Amino acid sequence: MNILLLGPPGAGKGTQAKYICEYFHIPQISTGEMLRAAVRSQSPLGLEVKNILEKGELVSDQIVIELVKKRLEETDVEHGFLFDGFPRTLPQAHALVEAEIFLDCVIEIQVSDESLIKRLSGRRVHLASGRTYHTEFHPPKVAEKDDLTGEALVQREDDKEATIRDRLAVYHRQTLPLIEFYRNIPGLSFLTIDGDQPIEEVRKILLDWIFEKFFKHPGIES
Ligand code: AMP
């Protein structure tokens, strides 16, 4: 099963992606995470995209498409995958169609800009593990320290408020058109979910929906 999670930065795509991937045993393909890893390792790609990520702009379609195509050559995608943060532009979506990489469902998580700014500006990350916290909604036991290792938490450069506003503008301009694009593909299951609800609630709605759509035999009562 191939799933796409769509939504603005801070909508909770990463969090929900982890639940879905664990539940259905499929890998999460997060282009943002792959690009940040490249920056951390200071690879040629990382050096090329570092500034773009810090400014909250989009990396070129060509780079991202190549990255994803390479990732899809790995064997763990055999039974499906979940895209988180890709495609993000119409050319990226078209590239998938041209490469005959098809999706079974698209899930859009909607959250208001106001909530997103609050969520993102309070987000803190433990770089080594990827564990995330929030200064208000999910604070660590000791301020600015990871619960398990005691190491310092950091704020992503692109989680600073001015950059968040830029990222939201980019989302509205470049990524929202994808919603119409995917809604108009016949036979593609599309779910829009209100992401301004507790994480657990969103998780339940998503998992129930996927299960109903793809795993419940039509003739059998549960
Ligand atoms: P994310 O973690 O998905 O919010 O992505 C972080 C940053 O990585 C974005 O602000 C972009 O600079 C870059 N990025 C991630 N995915 C893409 C994509 N599909 N196309 C272009 N840039 C991307």
Give a verbal description of the structure.
The chain has helices spanning 13-24, 31-40, 44-55, 61-71, 90-98, 113-121, 161-183, 199-214; strands at residues 2-6, 28-30, 81-84, 105-110, 123-125, 132-134, 189-194. The mean pLDDT is 93. It is an alpha/beta fold and 222 residues long. The protein binds adenosine monophosphate (AMP). Adenosine monophosphate binds at residues 9, 31-32, 35, 52-53, 56-59, 64, 85-86, 88, 92, 158, 167.
Strands of the widest sheet, in order across it, are: 2-3-1-4-7
| Average residue-wise pLDDT | 93
Strand content: 5-15%
SS class: alpha/beta
List keywords for this structure.
single chain, 222 residues, alpha/beta, five-stranded parallel β-sheet, two-stranded antiparallel sheet, 8 helices, 7 strands, 14% strand, binds adenosine monophosphate
What's the quick description here?
The protein is of the alpha/beta class and 222 residues long.
Layout of strands and helices, then pairs:
Elements: E1 2-6, H1 13-24, E2 28-30, H2 31-40, H3 44-55, H4 61-71, E3 81-84, H5 90-98, E4 105-110, H6 113-121, E5 123-125, E6 132-134, H7 161-183, E7 189-194, H8 199-214
Parallel strand pairs: 1-3, 1-4, 2-3, 4-7
Antiparallel strand pairs: 5-6
Helix pairs in contact: 1-8, 2-3, 4-5, 6-7
The chain binds adenosine monophosphate.
Adenosine monophosphate binds at residues 9, 31-32, 35, 52-53, 56-59, 64, 85-86, 88, 92, 158, 167.
